[in-house]
Amino acid sequence: MSLKRFMSEAISPWMKNEGPDSDIVLSSRIRLARNLENHVFPLVADEQQSEEVNEQIRKHYENQAYGSVGNLSYINVDQLKVIERRVLVEKHLISPNLAEEPKHSAVLMSEDESISIMINEEDHIRIQCLFPGFQLSEALTLASGIDDWFEEKVNYAFDEKHGYLTSCPTNVGTGMRASVMMHLPALVMTQKIHRIVPAINQLGLVVRGIYGEGSEAQGNVFQISNQMTLGKSEIDIVEDLRGVVLQLIEEERSARNTLLETSKIQLEDRVYRSLGTLANSRIIQSKEATKCLSDVRLGIDLEMIEGISRKILNELMILTQPGFLQQYAGETLSPDDRDIRRATLIRERLKLEKNNE
């Protein structure tokens, strides 16, 4: 599959489906960190050592099929333009770290983009599996299968006492990060999120922004994930996270009901003002756009707005990011030009949706 295919569509094919509790849980992800035995880890490897690892993995897995997901396409990240790397970050196919400092780095991707395997990021191999909605167990099953498939041809750095050896000590053990992306606007509006986040952190989990570590929450979207991987099995980690996510879903739904009961007119006003801003603005910054998209999505979930699909909002959340805007424009844009193009794109997309009713 060509690079153009991965770059041309904002929504990955797997995102077009809706999973369990998809009104609140946008996606579930399992990521496994692995390193090759008898190879220097990426953070201290020189150019030749990094190239050897990249070539070994490419030779074994480029255009190879895994089960029903089909062939994996190999993309050399080093050879991508800055904007192209940014687009892959915005689609959550590679990490910001890999985009900023590629060193003989690559990514193997399935056609539906639910599988993304980074090569020479912080670790030699990072297997990522994404599912729509709340499907952690399904994501773990797929990631574990790919992990076993890889181990048929490469040997991992593994210690009987400590488990899988990784560049960062917090990944040692299972090497697994389980995470869910959640839309929690009502908890933010009622300010309950300020009480909930510290409580989650005390349970050994961490709350981050939409692009993971070091990123801020945009559009009331939060990533909840495990923090430590040593001393627990993969299943235990997933079950711990599952319990917290179920409680968060309950809290968010309760907060939405409270807003409807006590502030329905104010909530409707906020939702429709945001819809009006999106439908009519000529200039809009990214932060305002994501805030308005979050409000409109809440309005759709609460059946205040009809005729607009949640899928369109998912698309616009990615399509209006700086990388995609510039990819579509075919040139580097100034911040002011991006704000103008963002507003135009949103207006046209919403108009098209209305015309297709």
TrEMBL record:
It comes from the Bacteria. ATP binds at residues 27-31, 92, 126, 177-181, 208-213. PROSITE patterns: PHOSPHAGEN_KINASE, PHOSPHAGEN_KINASE_C. Residues 24-255 form the Phosphagen kinase C-terminal domain. GO terms for molecular function: protein arginine kinase activity. It is an enzyme of class 2 (transferase). A motif (RDXXRA motif of the pArg binding pocket involved in allosteric regulation) lies at residues 338-343. CDD domains: bacterial_phosphagen_kinase. Its EC number is 2.7.14.1. The keyword DNA damage does not apply. This is Protein-arginine kinase. The gene is mcsB.
